[in-house]
Write a structure and sequence with these properties.
This protein is an alpha+beta fold. The chain is built from 4 helices and 10 strands. The protein binds adenosine-5'-triphosphate (ATP) and 2-amino-6-hydroxymethyl-7,8-dihydro-3H-pteridin-4-one. The site of adenosine-5'-triphosphate has 11 residues, from strand 5 and strand 7.
């Protein structure tokens, strides 16, 4: 029997055959339940262990007042992670959900306290809007808990269609977002 040639992979995102491009993605992580720092560290370690993902940098840890969360929700620890990836955006979202699940997050009401939340903020200049994924993240531009840590590690950062992080941060209330110099996520 003759061996068939290796098929080209048709990439659902780019509709190009063969290799997928390397894109830089910005990921927001947050936790307001349990051992919050440990959850954030676990999320970053899990991203580092993901094939086709290269963690480029991670921000400081910020303690942040809950935004749009139910009355009585505790403060979050938040951070932002920059990665390079060749994964498709939907595979990356699946990975984000798997990491949330690995840390015991229960999917209950929107905004409910969560052990770990992993959001895709931007993935290169990809735009998506389907039943599972919106890119750029539709609320990132108004969230100080995303913009401040992102600005720290990527002063040139930009949200396609919204503007530069350095400008957007001037339009949001940053009072509830405090850098915790005593906490650190290790790479
Ligand atoms: N850019 C994105 N990043 C992460 N999830 C997204 C994104 N766009 C759409 N979603 C979808 O949103 C759904 C709900 O996500 P999740 O439970 O994390 O929301 P939330 O954290 O309560 O609120 P928010 O979306 O405002 O951060 C997910 O199942 C996911 O399919
Ligand atoms: N401070 C803060 N508030 C939030 C956060 C978060 O990560 N930090 N995540 C939310 C839903 O993703 C809703 N509100």
């Amino acid at each position: 029997m003759t061996e068939s040639p290796t098929p080209y992979v048709l990439d659902a995102d780019t509709m190009t055959g063969g290799m997928r491009p390397i894109r830089q993605a910005v990921i927001s992580i947050g936790s307001n339940l349990g051992d919050r720092l440990n959850r954030l560290q676990g999320a970053v370690s899990a991203l580092e262990d993901t094939p086709e993902v290269q963690v480029v940098s991670v921000s400081s840890v910020y303690e942040t007042q809950p935004v749009g969360a139910p009355e009585g929700s505790g403060p979050f620890l938040n951070a932002v992670v920059l990665i390079d990836t060749t994964l498709t955006v939907h595979t990356l979202l699946d990975r984000a959900h798997a990491i949330e699940d690995a840390f015991g997050r229960e999917r209950s009401e929107p905004g409910a306290p969560r052990t770990l939340d992993v959001d895709l903020v931007v993935v290169g200049d990809r735009v998506a809007d389907d039943e599972t994924l919106t890119l750029p993240h539709p609320r990132a531009h108004e969230r100080a808990f995303v913009l401040l840590p992102w600005l720290e590690i990527d002063p040139e950062g930009e949200i396609p269609g919204q503007g530069f992080v350095a400008d957007l941060v001037g339009d949001v209330d940053t009072t509830g977002v405090v850098r915790r110099e005593d906490l650190e996520i290790l790479l």
